[in-house]
Amino acid sequence: MPAHLAPGRTFTGPVTYVGDGDSLCVALGRSPSEWVEVRLADFYAPELQAPGGEQAKAMLDRIVRGREVSCVAQHRSYDRLVAVCRLRGSSLGDLMRRAGVREGGNR
Fold first, then answer.
1. What is the pLDDT of residue 107?
2. What is the pLDDT at residue 1?
3. Is 106 a member of any domain?
4. What is the pLDDT of residue 46?
5. Count of other CB atoms within 10 angstroms of residue 20
């Protein structure tokens, strides 16, 4: 893992892609090779094929797509970086819960 993505480090950038209700890509540069795939540490969305999964993805997309988020790296999980991300000071997990999205994915 690059030093700028080590646990405890903060990184900031616009969200370029939402994969599901608890994963997204943060652009640290213009090239897709500079995008960081992030798994939210503080929200567990239903899987896409599970009830509520598509709705969770759509809500996360509405909340963050194209907006700048600030994330604190925690650790790696498979091919993604697990992080707590914030939009204007509010964690994305809290924003998802406030929007009424139910949790229920794999922890």
1. 52
2. 64
3. no
4. 93
5. 20
C-alpha to C-alpha distance for 68 and 100, rounded to whole angstroms: 22
Q: Which amino acid is at 57?
A: K
Structure tokens belonging to residue 26: 């943060």
Low-confidence ranges of the chain (pLDDT < 70): 1, 105-107
Whether residue 107 lies inside any domain: the answer is no
In this structure, what CATH number is given to the domain that contains residue 25? 2.40.50.90
Residue 101 belongs to some domain of the structure = no
* Tokens describing residue 28: 């640290």
Residue 65 φ then ψ, to 5°: -55, 125
Buried b (16+ CB within 10 A) or exposed e, 38-62: bbbbbbbbbbeeeebbebbbebbbe
